[in-house]
Every structure is written in structure tokens, then in C-alpha cells.
Specification:
The chain has 288 residues and is of the alpha+beta class. It has helices at 53-58, 112-127, 201-213, 275-284; strands at 10-11, 24-26, 28-29, 37-42, 48-49, 68-74, 77-82, 96-99, 140-141, 148-149, 156-157, 162-171, 174-180, 191-194, 217-228, 233-242, 255-262.
Length: 288
């Protein structure tokens, strides 16, 4: 999955490091997730490269109003964010703004998918927390932790994680596959949904299955988890078994289609960077 970068290691300890000329600086633009893009240079082998601090500094894009923010390190490589609020005024020769999903490709250089989606998650959070939700004053970086604080009312805000579940519903040798309605991703998916306040992850699984396909389930078991910065999620994967009738009535607001697919009819997943693909591939192989 995207977080599996061994032997490399992601280090998320907060620091106020200053960038060096060769350090990587992510630049994003956009005001909504559908519009958001990342500034990359595509080499002849279609590998995305992120601007360096020197490139942006020499071009005059790093200013007091648009500083760089240290994000994290992978091994000894430091990654930063140009904290310009997602404006689209950064233009570098050879670079272009491409969809964030560029970082989800398994052929991308090792570590870059995790770096790209984690950087985007933090960009999204910084952009949406420029003003205090309590009193309206402008937020400033907190000195000792990854947070922003209101200098007026002392409201302290930490990065947001939205817990969600990915659900593999089994019916003997069949699994329930679906396609989302109204989303950019059009591939095969499993059922999924966000955890509501006051419920456990297992309760979320049962509720989402009933809401989306009108089925009841049993034997809910944990499979694994994944950070998914594309949507600010922390995903938890569960398998469960159909508890009664296998007829399906889909929620057309959430799903374009859903149906039972036999294990033998599943195609090998070419990209197992996502938790969904990993779960489908595990079921196809008979591991779960």
C-alpha cells in the first residue's frame, strides 16, 4: 500500500527546519478538492519531479506572504510546502499543474506517492485553517507542535483526520463490488463510508452496508489501515459476511452500480497502493 515504503522511513516529527537549496517544496493550487493540482515537471519517462527550494527562491516565489513550511522527512530527505494558500501564480519553465492522483501511480518513484498525498493532506489543512473558527482572527503556526493557534482567543487547531471504513462484503466465494456515483474515480471499488460521531468502526461497517445496498452483515473482522491524504482520511479496512438475503438495492446518490463478483472472475489488481485494491486482491487470491 501507499505507506509501505520500507526500507525508507517517514518521519513526521514537527520541526521549524529551514530549507536548503536542494530540498523539495510542494506547490499546490486550487480552492476545492476537484480543482486542486500539484506543480510537477514530467521527465521523458513520465516521472513527476517536484520543484526545489532554489528554483522557487530564484524565481521570486518565496516571500514573507508566501513562506515555506517544513512538512516531514523520508529518511534524510526533507519536504516543504509553499504556504501561499493555493494561489495559481507560480509558474516555472518545464513545470505544469497536474491532478493530485498523479501521485497514486505505482510506477512513480519510491516514496513519492506517500510524500505527495501526505503533503497534499497538510496543504489542504493549512489552507482551510487560515482563520479562527471561533472568533475569526487569523491563525498563526504553533511553536512546538503541528498546529495553528489563534493569537486572540488561543483556539488551538490540529491537523484533521477523517476516519472512514472500506468494506469487503463476502457471500461465499463472491464479493460485493461497486462503482461510485458522481466521483472522479470511476474504477471498481468496495463499499465505504465515514464514521459518525458516537459510533465504533464496526458499527460504521454495518450501517454503511445497510444504507448503500440494503444488506445485513455479520462476522465483521479488521483487515488493515491506510492514510489517504487525497481525502484527509485514515482508512480502516474490514471484511464481513452476508447475514441474510443477497438481493441488493443500491443508494443511487452514493453508488452508480453494485453487484456480486465471483472470486474467479476478479481481474488481478495492477495497482495495490490503495487499501481497496489490496483488499480485492487478497480476496481474489483466497487469503481472506
Amino acid at each position: 500500500m501507499i505507506q509501505d515504503i520500507a526500507p525508507m522511513q517517514l518521519h513526521l516529527d514537527y520541526s521549524q527546519k529551514q530549507p536548503r537549496d536542494g530540498d523539495t517544496v510542494f506547490v499546490f493550487r486550487g480552492s476545492t478538492k476537484r480543482e486542486d493540482r500539484a506543480l510537477v515537471h514530467m521527465d521523458p519517462e513520465h516521472q513527476p519531479h517536484i520543484p526545489s527550494y532554489k528554483e522557487l527562491s530564484d524565481a521570486g516565489y518565496i516571500t514573507e506572504a508566501a513562506p515555506v513550511q517544513f512538512l516531514f522527512s523520508i529518511d534524510d530527505k526533507d519536504y516543504f510546502l509553499l504556504n501561499n494558500g493555493g494561489k495559481d501564480d507560480v509558474q516555472l519553465p518545464g513545470y505544469e499543474y497536474t491532478p493530485i492522483r498523479t501521485f497514486c501511480d505505482r510506477t512513480v518513484l519510491p516514496g513519492l506517492p506517500l510524500a505527495g498525498l501526505t503533503a497534499y493532506h497538510l496543504f489542504f489543512w493549512y489552507r482551510d485553517n487560515t482563520c479562527c473558527g471561533r472568533c475569526g482572527h487569523r491563525m498563526i503556526p504553533f511553536e512546538t507542535e503541528r498546529a495553528v493557534i489563534c493569537p486572540e482567543c488561543k483556539n488551538l487547531v490540529f491537523p484533521k483526520l477523517m476516519p472512514a471504513v472500506i468494506i469487503g462484503v463476502r457471500n461465499g466465494n463472491k464479493i460485493l463490488c461497486s462503482r461510485y456515483a458522481g466521483r472522479e474515480y470511476k474504477g471498481v471499488a468496495l463499499l465505504a463510508g465515514f464514521c459518525e460521531i458516537g459510533e465504533s468502526l464496526e458499527q460504521t461497517v454495518a450501517r454503511e452496508v445497510e444504507e448503500e445496498v440494503n444488506c445485513r452483515v455479520k462476522n465483521i473482522t479488521y483487515f488493515g489501515s491506510q492514510p489517504w491524504g487525497l481525502d484527509s482520511n485514515l482508512l480502516a479496512g474490514f471484511f464481513c459476511d452476508l447475514a441474510d438475503d443477497d438481493s441488493i438495492t443500491i443508494d443511487e446518490h452514493e453508488l452508480a452500480s453494485a453487484g456480486w463478483v465471483d472470486r474467479s472472475e476478479l481481474e488481478p489488481m495492477p495497482n495495490v497502493m490503495s487499501l481497496t485494491a489490496t483488499m480485492i486482491e487478497a480476496f481474489r487470491k483466497g487469503d481472506v
